[in-house]
Amino acid sequence: MVHPLPVPVITESSKVLSTGAYTTYQWSFNGANVATSSTLAATVNGNGVYTVTVTDSNGCSNTSAPDTVTDVVGVANVNLAKYITLYPNPATDIVHIDAPLNVNAAITGMDGRQIFFKNDAKDINISALAPGVYLIMIYDGNMLIKTDKLLKN
To answer: Hey, what CATH topology would domain 78-152 get?
Structure first.
């Protein structure tokens, strides 16, 4: 028996995106995977395109039409922090940043003194840093969205 493909449709209410009831969900923002829940709060300032790929109980998958969300202001970027990954940690030479949007990064000593700053940070070379514990702060523009300890071997 051939089952029809699911047809997910994104609905938006107060910058919260949702779709119908399916077995699994994979939300994407501008092509980058950001969440696997049935709903998603649009947390990125500015314009962006969201899609959701769903799988139904028959194992059939399909992707929604793109949904453009504009001018998301005032939604807490703290929700975005869970979608940002820093690795490896501890690190020796390079720290990679996976984020669903372009981010800036600052590295400080434990005393708060800024040692390094990079715009559009995806890979950060830390080989020149002395071994020890640092803080790495991730920004969306000027807004701090995540702080992590970074251990330099």
So the answer is: Immunoglobulin-like (2.60.40)
